[in-house]
Fold this sequence. Notes:
Layout: H1 4-16, H2 32-61, H3 73-97, H4 104-131, H5 135-157, H6 168-191, H7 195-220, H8 230-253
Amino acid sequence: MADLPPLVALAVAMGFSIYLSMPILFRKSIGSRTITLLNSAAIGILLFLLADLFLDVGPTIYHNPSNAFLADATPAAVFAVAVGACFLLLFFAEHRSRGGSLRPERLALVVALAIGFQNLTEGLVLGASWAGGAAGLTTVVFVGFFLQNVTEGFPIAAPFVGSVDRRFGLIAAFFLIGGLPAVVGGISGFYYNDATLDLVFSSLAIGAILYSIIPMMRMAFRPAQPPEATYLKQRLTYLGILVGFLAGFLVNAI
């Protein structure tokens, strides 16, 4: 059986690669156009993650030998319940405490939780492949997830980009919430992994991303001041979303 310590080192490197995107927050001044591009790129990355997560759970939900287009009842129910429960839990927790849109720190926390759930499933896959002795597969999994995690820091940081009060300690904590589950998942997957676990955590991540992406889209398409700047902002938003989506796809395809 493979040794655990090298796996832990790989999982730590994979999970904490999310911090490589943090230096962008240390810039003293960021122009409004750059802010628009970064925020919209974060939306594009999250949209890709939604597609990527559903691609992961799809084979489990649509694993019907007689009809590939017919979902199996049990995994489909697990998916629907997990997505709905996560979304509604975040909805009621937020709107019970206050109305209006999410504050930057709360939005960043929701995004960090979503990415944390996703990294937990990625860690489970890494741990299972390592325990099975599939060295080649482990390398592919590690490189792919490492590069993807680098881009995943941007959605967490996006609500604070351009903010005067960026509170780097709090942001670092959110990055930890997003990255540490990769280590937990790696160790857990080394000893035990199951398709149902992957389905549950991926579904929770989808629910959290769905909840967080709504206010991000609303802010991205909010009219600019002065009004004549709205057209340029919208064009940059479209471009940024495309760039973010393609960036997520390219690093995942390597």
